[in-house]
Amino acid sequence: xxxxxxxxxxxxxxxxxxxxxxxxxxxxxxxxxxxxxxxxxxxxxxxxxxxxxxxxxxxxxxxxxxxxxxxxxxxxxxxxxxxxxxxxxxxxxxxxxxxxxxxxxxxxxxxxxxxxxxxxxxxxxxxxxxxxxxxxxxxxxxxxxx
Length: 146
Known about the structure:
By secondary structure, this protein is an alpha+beta fold.
């Protein structure tokens, strides 16, 4: 009887994994038409590294999580990258999409963006609210040369 129970559990888990795979692929296709262009637009607008412009793109949760002093330090750090030029590589996070099944939808992308200073590794998490995308979290780091 235990082997039969184990088989049922394995079958259920396998079914869930397959369903999750199809769900996250559908999410990737759906957001490729809206969120990916939004990432480029947001990076273009905030890459002047003015605090007020960044604040207009931040989700309320992000604004509450960061102090003015931290935001100033971040702007000074990112200002060295210069203006955003293009996206070289953008990867949808299936994991973030899977975890968004429960709770608020978070769309996460990582990749390489081209700035005046060269390629920069980026990671950005967006929240979709009222047909717009707000930045929940983002990080930039100078890409290492290989």
